[in-house]
Amino acid sequence: MTDTDTPSEAPAPPGCPAHAGAVALDGLQFQQTTAELYRKLRREHGAVAPVVLDGGVPAWLVLGYREVHYVTSNDQLFARDSRRWHAWDSIPDDWPLLPYVGYQPSVLFTEGAEHRRRSGAISDALGGVDQFELQSTCERIADQLIDAFAGRGAADLMADYAHLLPLLAVVKMCGLPDSETPDLVRDLTASLDAGEDDDPVAAYGRVQDRIQRLVESRHQRPGPDVPSRLLAHEAGLTDEQIVQDLISVIAAAQQPTANWIGNTLRLMLTDERFSVTLSGGRRSIGQALNEVLWEDTPTQNFIGRWAARDTQLAGRRIRQGDLLILGLAAANTDPQVRPDAAAGAAGNQAHLSFSHGEHQCPYPAPELAEVIAKAAVEVLLDRLPDVEVAVDAATLVWRPSIWMRGLEALPVEFSPAPVAQGLG
Ligand code: HEM
After folding, report:
1. 361, 363, 370, 371: residue to mutate for ligand 1 pocket, most atoms within 8 A of CB
2. Which comes out higher in pLDDT, residue 19 or 112?
3. Is the CB of 41 under 6 A from ligand 1?
4. pLDDT tens, 155-177?
5. 332-336: long-range contacts at Cβ-Cβ below 8 A with a sequence spacing of 24 or more?
6. Given this structure, which CATH class describes domain 111-292+353-424?
């Protein structure tokens, strides 16, 4: 870490002695070196560090593996409904983290029996996805995306490939007609990840309208898709709940899976253990996907949980209504559970990248994400066998986010390849 990367120490928020010495997580100056940041926080604060978010808002960053496991296992004590937060009076309407913590009546913020009902219906609806069919769909989507740039001999694998593929796959799982897919994908991209010209709120409104129409159409004509299975589910969800939860599913799937693909391609194209040689010998794609979940997990920090009552955690006094952030990346690299990080993680899937407990990424979403990510990496390496990163690997830039870990761009070069239209 260079001097300019050193996280700034924030003044303690008024009336909060526990946050003296808290580290500001808003500067993003350490985005290139988050592993170093987590080591430093662990060294100075232990398993639970006082941090300050944008606008001086205090929170706890849970860094220890055992502590993240404990917090996520105790959903009555560390609960998910953000209306429990005691800080709402000091949160401005334009607070940049509102999209993550602003209460919505979706599965994300429900608790207890109501959460189990909503999340169980999502699991059952996702469980109806035929994974072999999903794999073929993803291979077809991958071929089409590669066709669009294969003749150029160059591409940005984040914008041209990794961001689009999971979104197209999930939209297909939801049974959206092909004719409506481009508009929905454009609006979803704008609402999840606004560029300068987009109005994310208007785009989100259009997404909601479109999903609403999709759900209405499935009342008349059910199909082999996720919305139809949610409508038919014994949980008896209302249309409004189904619309909210479908948007949550699509949004929850898109960015993490896109970054899982991007981070895996980066690893395979820049680390000689995975590099292609003419004589063959590529380490398995499955191994690279798993290593990324340990070392560069897509959801590096998840916001969050709120304490339902006063309690203690790793020697810290946690007050009712305090906000806790799940430090998933830090937990995965906690020396208490991985004393020898260099030993690698082959075969070990005990990482917390899909979180844990009641609100973890619902089964079988992690499996579906793996089918999507694996197909994406396989087809790309198959179609462009001499693909290589077009810049010095050390200059690849991570996005300025403490929440998601993904590259701004992954520029690559390869021998121009023929299009595969008709192959699939
Ligand atoms: C097909 C792809 C995916 C789908 C459909 C999906 C779906 C979901 C849903 C619906 C939730 C909300 C669960 C709840 O609040 O009860 C969730 C949470 C989550 N997902 Fe996924 N997801 C996908 C891929 C991924 C990937 C690739 C990652 C990271 C490697 C990931 C990590 C997480 C995490 C960390 C949470 C938060 C859990 C918590 O609050 O403790 N997901 N996902």
Report:
1. 361
2. 112
3. no
4. 999 999 999 999 999 999 999 98
5. 332/65, 332/293, 332/294, 332/295, 332/297, 333/35, 333/38, 333/294, 333/295, 334/42, 334/47, 334/63, 334/64, 334/65, 334/66, 336/64, 336/65, 336/66
6. mainly alpha
